[in-house]
């Protein structure tokens, strides 16, 4: 099974809007997909959240205007996860049942060969961190109690991993022990996430976790020192599931939506004081 893993498109309903006053997120997504021409044998396209930046119905219609024909050309189901910038209720109203993806919230997307993608909504209205309610964990345990013949892929925006930077650690997923208890002994082959905007791997309950690099920008978790830095890049991952451990490869390209001539200048660079202000507004 081959899964194309996309994340963090941050689309706007206003197509003239720019992320951090710089990135044309629609152009970034279209440009990345153009680089994938010729890709074949894809069994699912999974977008792990922050599909929208402003949570508008227009942004979600734009998302499907772009991704529906792309997934259809691959003859692959499309699964969309809700992230902290998304508004689940608006997405559910904007995307009519019967289209290529089900309308928001926790759900199961069937794949060929008896496999499935289980989608969890970890968003918290008005906040940047992630949380799963006890009812969601009960629902997940109920789904996983009946294994899928082809195995399960769990998709959740906030990674079930301790973050690599102070900013992201203040905006990560809580309740990891409770989630691990629900995943232990299940048929989940891999957990796919976004949110961190940089590639990262780890595990929960012995299950591999992969975080794909962002499409709207890519965070630099190594070279920024005490600051937080993001670069004008776009990334994508390809996940292959077969015998043995999953195989995951990622590519990162220059951002096709960058409107600044100096592409090497960071999209943002936050000082520790600025990070503290962000966490006060959006953290726990």
Automatic annotation (TrEMBL):
Keywords: Hydrolase, Iron, Metal-binding. Pfam families: Metallophos (PF00149). Residues 1-198 form the Calcineurin-like phosphoesterase domain. It comes from the Bacteria. InterPro entries: Calcineurin-like_PHP, CNP_phosphodiesterase-III, Metallo-depent_PP-like. One of its GO terms (molecular function) is hydrolase activity. The keyword Transcription regulation does not apply. Belongs to the cyclic nucleotide phosphodiesterase class-III family. This is Phosphohydrolase. It comes from Brachybacterium paraconglomeratum. The lineage of its organism: Bacteria, Bacillati, Actinomycetota, Actinomycetes, Micrococcales.
